[in-house]
Q: What sequence folds into this?
């Protein structure tokens, strides 16, 4: 008996009404008796010839409308598991070729250098010859990197390539590479100059060492250039960042004293008005934020603080009109418990994990907060990774 695909599971499989999981199926598709799929209106011909072998994308076979529905369903499903509901706004979807940071693998094999993502569930590298998610400025680095690594990489050695787009150009870190001899050192400088890098760093197992940085690398946040530590967290796309900032500004509008917790480099702290207190456990990011704010004359108090071990308690929170949370994937359970017991009127919560967000939202709801709205953000185009911004009030 034919079965219709009704939803997409968290890992990207289509699911029938009877609970069968079918790879690469989309809601609206029909699973026929012979096991084949009859495509529905949400099915798209994947644009990249590496799909689905490459592990960089899981959902290239979805139309934008179907992908937006998936983002909404991920958030709604997570909330429903905790007995919660809210207005879920239309998602923001980052356009193709806008990803400004990524981590790739590289290996020298058979006389050539392979660079790309790993196959799903495998250590095999898919040699990336096209990419519909990376920013063109980063993708164009792959050819020069292949040539460079061909001269310095031993056979069968796998290395990690971290790429980010700084204000000054590509920021490249090579992890697992050993640079020996004057010729190899000079090749790094020549490579960096020819390709107009913002920075090149090498991590040979003893920590990253900058080998080229003609000017201090920065990233502009809230119109303020911030020193960019190597390997620092950035929102995946500039437009996705703008969507999250807009949501946070709406959720905290009118607040005069705002706490930005898990502040990182200041994505939100530097974009908000009023008196800002920013807290972050990473030493380098908080020092960079403090330096940038001071140089720009922005009123901001930056605190180096581990919010898992030492969250702001209800008494400390009482001075704030609003709190912004942007925790790692594990969520902010310790801090949220203190917020639930506080008198803070408004909370803006940015999350990269709908499951831990919903868990924390339930804690806030039990403390008297109302979940006003949620906006999904699909920065990781065609992946199962869904981010969001949400507003709470009491």
A:
């Amino acid at each position: 008996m034919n079965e219709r695909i009704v939803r997409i599971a968290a890992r990207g499989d289509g699911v029938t009404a009877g609970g069968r999981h079918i790879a690469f199926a989309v809601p609206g598709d029909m699973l026929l008796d012979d096991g084949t799929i009859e495509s529905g209106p949400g099915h798209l011909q994947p644009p990249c010839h590496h799909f689905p072998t490459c592990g960089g994308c899981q959902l290239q076979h979805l139309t934008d409308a179907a992908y937006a529905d998936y983002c909404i369903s991920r958030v709604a499903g997570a909330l429903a598991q905790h007995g919660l509901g809210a207005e879920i706004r239309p998602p923001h979807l980052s356009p193709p070729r806008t990803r400004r940071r990524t981590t790739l693998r590289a290996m020298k094999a058979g006389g050539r250098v392979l660079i790309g993502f790993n196959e799903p569930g495998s250590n095999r590298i898919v040699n990336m010859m096209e990419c519909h998610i990376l920013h063109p400025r980063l993708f164009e680095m792959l050819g020069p990197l292949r040539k460079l690594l061909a001269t310095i990489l031993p056979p069968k050695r796998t290395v990690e390539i971290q790429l980010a787009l700084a204000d000054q150009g590509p920021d490249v870190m090579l992890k697992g590479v050993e640079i020996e001899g004057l010729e190899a050192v000079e090749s790094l400088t020549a490579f960096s100059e020819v390709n107009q890098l913002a920075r090149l760093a090498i991590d040979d197992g003893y920590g990253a060492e900058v080998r080229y940085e003609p000017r201090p690398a920065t990233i502009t946040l809230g119109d303020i250039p911030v020193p960019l530590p190597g390997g620092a967290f950035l929102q995946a796309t500039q437009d996705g960042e703008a969507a999250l900032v807009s949501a946070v500004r709406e959720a905290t509008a009118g607040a005069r004293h705002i706490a930005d917790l898990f502040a990182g480099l200041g994505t939100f702290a530097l974009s908000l008005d009023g008196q800002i207190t920013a807290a972050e456990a990473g030493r380098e990011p908080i020092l960079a934020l403090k330096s940038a704010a001071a140089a720009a004359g922005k009123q901001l108090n930056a605190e180096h603080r581990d919010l898992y071990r030492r969250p702001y308690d209800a008494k400390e929170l009482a001075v704030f009109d609003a709190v912004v949370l942007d925790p790692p994937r594990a969520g902010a359970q310790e801090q949220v418990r203190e917020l639930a017991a506080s008198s803070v009127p408004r909370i803006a919560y940015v999350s990269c994990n709908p499951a831990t967000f919903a868990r924390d939202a339930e804690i806030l709801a039990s403390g008297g907060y109302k979940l006003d709205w949620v906006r999904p953000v699909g920065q990781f185009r065609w992946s199962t990774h869904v981010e969001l911004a949400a507003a709470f009030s009491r």
User: Anything to note?
Assistant: The chain has three domains: 1-43, 80-94+234-393, 101-217.
